[in-house]
Structures are given as C-alpha cells and as structure tokens.
Amino acid sequence: MVASSLPHSGSDGPDGSAALTLDDIRSAQKTLSGVSRVTALEGSRHLSALVGGPVLLKCENLQRTGSFKIRGAYTRIAAMPAAERARGVVAASAGNHAQGVALAASLLGVRSTVFMPVGAPLPKVAATREYGAEVRLHGQVVDETLRAAQEYAAGTGAVFIHPFDHPDIVAGQGTVGLEILEQCPDVRTVVVGVGGGGLAAGLALAVKSLRPDVRVVGVQAEGAAAYPPSLAAGRPVALESVSTMADGIKVGRPGDVPFKIVGELVDEVRTVSEDALSSALLLCLERAKLVVEPAGAAPVAALLSAPEDFEGPVVAVLSGGNVDPLVLQRTLRHGMAAAGRYLSLRLRLTDSPGALAALLGELSVADANVLDVSHVRTDPRLGLAEAEVELHLETKGPEHCAGVTASLRRSGYTVLD
C-alpha cells in the first residue's frame, strides 16, 4: 500500500500547512456529512459496451450547487478559526467555485464576496447571488478577476478562498474518492478531469491510500493542458495561453499543493480534443439523460477517444453540470457535427424560379432534415445566372453525410464545401 501522507514542495505546503493524509480526507468527510450529497453512480450501457467492461458515472453534476466544488469550499471555511470567519471570505471564479464558496459561507454564517468576470454567464451570476454572496463583476478574463479579489482581501482582511491550491480544498475534494471506493469496491480505473488539480489530487490520495492497485487517469483539454509539460519539468509550468470550451478545467498553471500529489499518485494525465468534449456532452445528454458541462464530460471524452485503454470497472467522474444554455446549444451542435449528425454545405445552383424548391426536394429524397437555409443571389463571385446556398442539415451519421453529398453531385449541383 502506498503511503497515505504526502509532502508538498518542501516539508509543508505554501501556507505552512502540514502534509495531507488520508485521515484529513476522512475528517473532511465527517465535516461534510449532511452538507454535501453522496452522489449516485449511474451505469452506462453504451460506454460499457465500448470499453468491454462496466462503466459507471459518478454524478457530481447532481451535487449541491451543480458541482463538486462545495466539498472543498465548505471544508476550507469550516476549518477557519472564528477570528478569520469574522473577517469574511472572498473568492474569484467564473462559475462553479463561486457558487460553492457562496453556499458554503452561507451555511456557516460567514459573509462572502465573490468576484466574477464581466462576461460571466448570467445564470451563474444569479445563482451565486442566490446562494448568499455579494457578487462584484470585474475584469474581462479570470486573471484580472483574481487580482481584484486578492486586492480586496489585502485591503479588507477577508480570507481568500483559492479554488484548488490549499490543503483543505484538496482534502474536501478527496471525499469523492472515498465515496467511489464505498460505492464500487471492485473499481479498477477512475477517470477524472483535471484543471488546477484539486479534485484529481484529493481523489488520487484517497483511492491510492486504500487501493494502490486502482489506476487513476487525469484528463485535460488539449487547449488547456498544463499538467503534461509541468510533470515533464518536475514543477508547475504556466501556459502562455489557454483555449477550450471546458471552462471548468481551463487553468493555465497547476496548483502548488495538488501538483506533488498528482505527480506521485495519478498514473497518467491525457488530453482530449474539443470534438471529443462536445461528443461526450452529447452522449451524456442523449444516452445517460444527464446535463453535464464540457469540463464534467472530459472523462467520458477520454473513454470515447480510446476505450481500449481502460480496464473495467471504470468510474468516470462527471465533475459538474453548470452549463450556460447558449454554450450548451453551441456545444451540442458541435457534438452533432463531430458525430457526423450535422452537415453544413455550400453549393451553387441556377438562379431560376423553382431551383431552390428543387434542391430542397432532392434533400427530402435523401432523408436529410434541413435546419437552416441561406440563399445568396448577389455576389461578385457569382455568374449572372447563378445563386449560392448555404445549408445546415441534420443527418444520421458519417455514411449518411457522404451519401447526401454524393446524391447532390449526381444531380448536377456544384458542392463547394
């Protein structure tokens, strides 16, 4: 069995806290009793068939506030001395951490202020206020928001609650790992999304301390994958830029506290594409009937991308379900396109009466559902007797897409894209 006590950089963490142990996570579990939910494990027949063994989904998207973040936030604030609580707490977040801190502080009777970017989704801003926080909108990007929150903490004495880089946060998130072992004692592989690393570190410490034979796989978005270069360098390395639809794991630098634990206990950190993320979100919605945000779907994306790499029983952690409806709409459309169920075409046809109707008739025969039509008749690129049409079609898969395109070409249409 691996050691259940792991040091951070040096002998202590950056805040002077002692090394995290399994007992810290068990203590956090007691603290969270009656506060956080023991979220369900739901089987997935589709993913099980792909992997060739049982796959279960750990539904933290159904946790209070819609993500696992309440676990770490409540553990952190509950451990603060009374004098610190009296000063209030402050956080910076675009969504999940904001809501977790707001609810945790309210439950503990602590005043909370949450800084959010100016462009934060309105549903997340409203939810954070409803959970009891004073919300201040500042900055266009999270880095600017973070600086504002830290300046507020320095000026008011409020305690800054970091989203992942604190031992109490990691311990709280680690309770997910304890629940997985209790709910699925024969688990062989746990797959978890990784941003700053708080959830992955806490989960890995809990799981490996009790079951060192279990493989723990972290998953990052390709456009925000700070852990692979950091692990290669042996220290946290900041990315120059990050770009992904998965806001929940869109972190440019690993946290100092979780980095050591992830490096020692997480067996692998792999990356997934934006196509894989959107396809995974679509699968969760259609097949599992679960609303999951892109970050929460990252473990499912890894399973879809390389099912043969995972030994069952597999537990995939759906870390959150707080997705803005507009983002959900765009992501689902992207997921349909990635799955070959959404086809965009641009083609030319003769500009004559009935030409567009004839085209739509061809698509009807091909059994393609027309979602949107854009008809351009005046463009310098077009001849006097030409028109250009852009079509958005719902299709049944890659083979159907190819068949629709081939059918249009056989009928004499010039397909440009």
UniProtKB/TrEMBL annotation:
Write down the top EC class of this protein: lyase
GO BP annotation list: isoleucine biosynthetic process; L-serine catabolic process; L-threonine catabolic process
Cofactor (UniProt):
pyridoxal 5'-phosphate
PROSITE patterns annotated for this entry? ACT (PS51671), DEHYDRATASE_SER_THR (PS00165)
Tell me which residues make up the ACT domain. Answer: 344-417
E.C. number(s) listed in UniProt: 4.3.1.19
Pathway it belongs to? Amino-acid degradation; L-threonine degradation via propanoate pathway; propanoate from L-threonine: step 1/4
Can you state the subunit structure given in the record?
In the native structure, TdcB is in a dimeric form, whereas in the TdcB-AMP complex, it exists in a tetrameric form (dimer of dimers).
Q: What is this protein called?
A: L-threonine dehydratase catabolic TdcB
